[in-house]
Amino acid sequence: MHAWPASEVPALPGKGRDLRIHDTATGGRITLDPGPVARIYVCGITPYDATHMGHAATYNAFDLVQRVWLDTKRQVHYVQNVTDVDDPLLERAVRDGQDWTELAERETALFREDMTALRMLPPRHYIGAVEAIPGIVPLVERLRDAGAAYDLDGDIYFSVDTDPHFGEVSGLDAEAMRLLSAERGGDPERPGKKNPLDPMLWMAARPGEPSWDGGSLGAGRPGWHIECVAIALDHLGMGFDIQGGGSDLAFPHHEMGASHAQALTGEHPFAKAYVHAGMVGLDGEKMSKSRGNLVFVSAVRRDGVDPAAIRLALLSQHYRSDWEWTDQVLADAVERLARWRAAVSRPDGPSADALVEEVREALADDLDSPAALAAVDRWAALQGTEGGTDEGAPGLVSRTVDALLGVAL
What we know:
Radius of gyration: 22 Å
Strand order of the largest sheet: 5-4-3-10-11
Strand content: 15-25%
CATH superfamily of the largest domain: HUPs
Largest sheet: 5 strands, parallel
Number of domains: 2
CATH class of the largest domain: Alpha Beta
Distance between the termini: 31 Å
Mean pLDDT: 96
Order of helices and strands: EEEHEHHEHEEHEEHEHEEEHHEHHHH
Structural class: alpha/beta
């Protein structure tokens, strides 16, 4: 599966700061020092309705991570998946009378278009669940043969009790996990499971649903969590720098994935940091496909809104915050974009050297994009009142905003 084209990232003078970021597993900020190649895995979409502002906010956060690392002169090895076979996708296809593969391909293509328009840097590896199945089957077989998985009426389940570190990612107690498991795709009430929290690794073929050859597992399809584990281990290995996604993935998805990988390898941790973006709401409710209260990037683009303004709207909120998408948030972003473009259109201006460092420091401090925007606002305000004689300043500001914030002025 191919990703989307990369926009050029301008080089800035000097060097960026090491990233200090909130780690869900420890509950505090940690400073990441990845070495010459930073490794990041971000969970991708299930392509039955893409791309709403909640998606965009999440991928914007991890785009900032890439840009901070690139500014430190590191390479970035970024991997993202596409869950192109799963119950919600199949259910939507049946509801709409569509072929599930055509639905997945169409929505994935739209996602690529949105990511391109928003100037999100693409992953080096963009992998679909279906294409990962040949690598998933042997992992499930290894878990079963090691006693970390068991058969239940043809389905294969992972035994969470085999991982001594289970629970360390989310920090939740058993009752909270059970409630979230039922809400987020698990089946804690199924009779016969060793532990209600045990997640499915391999679903035996069901009538009328797609299935693949699972070798000794029998025909079926993979569970949600093992998909990402197989892809991450194949392309990044254990102990990569960041596992990322929305905050609703901390449990069960990232918790289960970490346990799968740790049981497979005997190593810990799966990722050095677990980083989660907040939820975006609309009219007092979390924006979600199940509720149908979605604002789509493609629809806002069709209304004639500059994608740079959409990106500024996302950047105006701290990535870990839960926040509301409103007409005013977008209107403020449109106005900010106009002010910034007017400021950099002048032939000279106040020195921007300090601005570069302010933006770098803000983003290195747990991706504080609102503080970064405020720094550019201050420079633009000075440009409008005091002027300046630095002929290179407007160009430096443009490059800084492009390189670190992904906004083209």
